[in-house]
Amino acid sequence: EAAVTQSPRNKVTVTGGNVTLSCRQTNSHNYMYWYRQDTGHGLRLIHYSYGAGNLQIGDVPDGYKATRTTQEDFFLLLELASPSQTSLYFCASSDVNERLFFGHGTKLSVL
Amino acid sequence: QQQVRQSPQSLTVWEGETAILNCSYENSAFDYFPWYQQFPGEGPALLIAIRSVSDKKEDGRFTIFFNKREKKLSLHITDSQPGDSATYFCAASANTGNYKYVFGAGTRLKVIA
Fold this sequence. Notes:
Chain A contains no helices and eleven strands.
């Protein structure tokens, strides 16, 4: 079974703070994704990547940066966090059969 | 603009009944439609999926019905069980090679024993 691990599980920061969310997958999937989940909006794609060094813009990228350092590791960066970025963040990877495997999520609160 | 729409937002059924969750989309290029199931405190997990060349996909108690002309699909859960209580997301992707998925807002299902 594909394994996607996110850290931290919970994060609280202040407006203007700097936050990095981490994601590691151990199944050598090429594609990795960052989504945010908000009530009434479902899952919205922030950024995604098809390999180390690659970055693709998602549907709601404003205020977010991302970096794929290795096949396994994908990071989401909020350099000037705002209260509107309070959300539940999910990382996922995708296999060749187009199945998404999600992590358990990171709950971020920006005060 | 929501490319994938789901209804109802929430649904309550009795144990043993059939739950019907609806999904519609706008982009004619979408050709792959997975449904994901999410329990509280967990990430979504793939439940069942259909490609646009088919009009029905069945897996146990879960069946997708697909109408390409109307750009609609539905997930039927027969003999609903309390353990099916979860949020269900309809998603879509186009065969463009970029593996990009768009999700609906979800339907929260509650099955009462």
